[in-house]
Amino acid sequence: MKHLPPPLPPPPPGWLRVAGLLLCLTQTVLSMVLPNSTHFQSILDKYKDRDDAWWSARPRGKRAISESDMHLILDLHNKLRGQVYPPASNMEYMVWDYELERSAEHWAHACRWEHGPSHMLTQIGQNLGAHWGRDRPPTFHVQAWYDEVRYYSYPYPQECNPHCPFRCSGPVCTHYTQMVWATSSRIGCAINVCYNMNVWGMIWAKAVYLVCNYSPPGNWWGHAPYKHGAPCSACPASYAGGCRDNLCYKGMNYYHINFENLV
């Protein structure tokens, strides 16, 4: 399966963003956090041995994102996923994944303004954001990613024969499409302050770097980000008909919030 083409050059500096990985209003929804994913952990362990440099562990007990920022990012993703237009029939509720957070943390600490690490890119989707100057909340970048919707034209089923066209009239749309990719139901992000970071040839003395990883990855070439239809009318069977704020939802008994075992 082919992937979307690389993005065009970025907007002027001040704040910048990089397109999502090319692989492959409502009430605020309560943030949900899933326990560590065994499958994703096995992927991380596999590549940890291959290239330990990017994996240098930070002291236990510290995280590269605060609990409040975690909830802000997750809530905004779910809010925006639930209000896409045209409406989505199969948009899944997004949960926080600590292994995705962990991988995002190590990449954020590498302070490299590019997608990576390269050996992980077939397993995750990724959005990057950076800014300098005055403080901005992480949701600034999340909203900016979503605002690319203004350039994106959703491909209706009759246009997909068999492949859906990718129509983007602006510099980039793939942040937006990764955010609203229906099956990308897990996210983990990290924030790091990078000193003397090279951002497309410019040295930023103090860059605030946001890395968000998604699983399963989105932005598959020839596919629409979601199915058009009445909200929750085409949810996967595993959701057993559950729906919350226009998102396929498995119910409170399935999701867990647990901050005691964070690393």
Automatic annotation (TrEMBL):
Keyword Thylakoid attached: no
First and last residue of the signal peptide: 1-31
GO cellular component: extracellular region
SUPFAM superfamilies: PR-1-like
Gene3D superfamilies, per the entry: CAP
Cross-referenced SMART domains: SCP (SM00198)
Matching PROSITE patterns: CRISP_2
Keywords: Signal
One Pfam family named in its UniProt record: CAP
Domain SCP: from-to ranges: 68-222
PANTHER family the record matches: CYSTEINE-RICH SECRETORY PROTEIN-RELATED
Protein name: Cysteine-rich secretory protein LCCL domain containing 1b
Organism: Myripristis murdjan (pinecone soldierfish)
Taxonomic lineage from the root: Eukaryota, Metazoa, Chordata, Craniata, Vertebrata
